[in-house]
Specification:
By secondary structure, the chain is of the alpha+beta class. Helices cover 50% and strands 12% of the residues. It folds into 2 domains: 34-175 and 324-337, Triger factor/SurA peptide-binding fold (Orthogonal Bundle); 185-297, Chitinase A, domain 3 (Roll).
Length: 340
């Protein structure tokens, strides 16, 4: 299931009447605010950030998400450190913009569903979340001073924490209630491989123009052919992979459990025979090929790991249920990402 950034997103109330729903426009940044000034700096690298133009990034029947919304997220997540983003490469920034805009849009849809279902966050849950934030900072005064020093809006943070809990309460009540794990499910999970170690090569397609995709696939087909002929996979990964998290280690991800990677990647990691190389795997990030290094099974007794197995299976199934649910909401709302 997707995790929601605390202190990250502004969610406008979706105004509606029975006869003529009114479309809610995205945030427009006020001049000379920290977020506006940040947007001006980032626009020197990626013009889409320009706060005066305030480009629409997500369009639906009920609302839009603008560049102003995205910058507000960045400012209230990173604070003063956000200024360092202007030193990032253009493609990295573009991907961050697109991903954040989608997250904002999905959050708006979920909050609207919660409001429609008359589900609110429990006051005690929000108070506890705030208390935890205070404790981590050394007290409420220290927490507030830290936000102020970093140009992060306190009201924004508190509002978002409340919305996080409202969305989670809605999901628990209306979306995840049907997720059940049987004893047979647990026994099968216990007998299956628990972790996998793989090397992989990724060529990004996310946010790339459609006309570029065939060339990217052709490049991956050539790399795959070389790997299957016996070239050193780690060396190929160091040369070609666009996954910065594993590039220096030759594409290696070690001993990861199920539920940690995106589904298509995980399916290949746990089904392709050990020692073999997968065909091209498509995920939302791009094209992958995997070499399966090893897999391991559970060594602890069943009763010892039963509770953790049940939790893992629930989380995995919730992820699938969530993806299906949010896809349905987006289709109904005619959710469109505006390419730039």
């Amino acid at each position: 299931m997707k995790k929601y950034l605390v202190g990250a997103l502004t969610l406008a109330v979706l105004a509606a009447s029975a006869c003529s729903p009114k479309k809610t426009e995205g945030t427009r940044l006020a001049a000379d605010t920290p977020a506006y000034n940040l947007a001006k700096e980032l626009a020197t690298v990626v013009p889409i950030f320009d706060p005066d133009k305030n480009a629409v990034l997500i369009n639906t029947e009920a609302f839009t998400v603008t560049a102003g919304d995205v910058v507000e997220v960045i400012q209230n997540t990173m604070g003063n450190a956000a200024a360092s983003l202007k030193d990032r490469d253009v493609e990295t920034l573009k991907r961050a913009v697109s991903q954040t805009a989608v997250q904002i849009g999905e959050r708006k849809l979920l909050l609207a569903e919660a409001v429609s279902a008359k589900i609110t966050a429990k006051v005690e849950d929000v108070d506890k979340a705030l208390a935890d934030q205070y404790a981590q900072a050394g007290g409420e005064e220290a927490f507030l001073n830290m936000l102020k020093a970093n140009n992060v809006d306190v009201a924004f943070v508190k509002k978002t924490i409340g919305e996080d809990h409202q969305i989670q309460a809605f999901l628990d009540a209306k979306v995840f209630g049907a997720v059940q794990i049987s004893e047979e499910d647990l026994q099968k999970a216990y007998a299956a491989d628990k972790t996998a170690s793989v090397r992989h090569i990724l060529l990004m397609t996310q946010d790339k123009p459609a006309e570029e995709i065939p060339a990217i696939r052709k490049k991956m087909e050539d790399i795959l052919a070389r790997a299957k002929k016996g070239e050193d996979f780690a060396a190929l990964a160091k040369e070609y992979t666009e996954d910065t998290g594993s590039k220096e280690s030759g594409g290696l991800y070690e001993n990861f459990p199920k539920g940690q990677m995106v589904k298509e990647f995980e399916d290949a990691a746990f089904t392709v025979p050990v020692g073999e190389i997968s065909d091209i795997v498509q995920t939302r990030y791009g094209l992958h090929i995997l070499k399966i290094e090893s897999r391991a099974r559970e060594t602890e007794p069943f009763e010892t790991v039963k509770a953790s197995l049940e939790d893992q299976l629930k989380q995995s199934r919730k992820a699938g249920v969530y993806d299906e649910f949010i896809s349905g909401l987006k289709a109904k709302a005619k959710f469109e990402e505006v390419k730039f």
